[in-house]
Amino acid sequence: xxxxxxxxxxxxxxxxxxxxxxxxxxxxxxxxxxxxxxxxxxxxxxxxxxxxxxxxxxxxxxxxxxxxxxxxxxxxxxxxxxxxxxxxxxxxxxxxxxxxxxxxxxxxxxxxxxxxxxxxxxxxxxxxxxxxxxxxxxxxxxxxxxxxxxxxxxxxxxxxxxxxxxxxxxxxxxxxxxxxxxxxxxxxxxxxxxxxxxxxxxxxxxxxxxxxxxxxxxxxxxxxxxxxxxxxxxxxxxxxxxxxxxxxxxx
Length: 251
Known about the structure:
Elements: H1 2-109, H2 118-143, H3 147-160, H4 167-180, H5 184-197, H6 204-217, H7 221-234, H8 239-250
């Protein structure tokens, strides 16, 4: 019996040991699978990090290129504005010269002006060239935002070269420089002097419109209306008069 009992115990013990062995193997397999999964996950994370790093670097490069392109576009726009402004100024000066020449020719035809002698004509030409050079320098100062020296130079031209072709233009831009510098009353006086002294000049309508604009800015609607009516009556058909008519309808 004792031997039989031992035999039975031995037989029962074998499956138990086998079960323990199976559990150990399963744990080992699970550990191996877990290790493999963790290794793959680590590799994937490293790959993602590399991609993120490259993407971020690429994004920084693209952002830098876009910023550089934006700066270049802004510079080109600035250059285009300057070129357009210079072209408009050149066209306006040419128009002013044509108007002045036409006025002088009509005056000669009507006997209002005596033809100049060769000596006087040469002297007048030299004076005109001197005035034109001074005006160009003063106008460039205004265009560059150097208001104080521009005001001094333009004011000097309007008095020193009052009979020159550039004097009316100098008075107009003098008023513009004074207005931008905050001297509104002085600007109005310069524009009014232009209108009174050179009523037939092409800048006179623009001067009246400028006066009306500053009057409106100050809240003087009655004064602006008077100026705009003067503009439409004195210079009908001009662009300034057309704009004045539009403004009068809004007052």
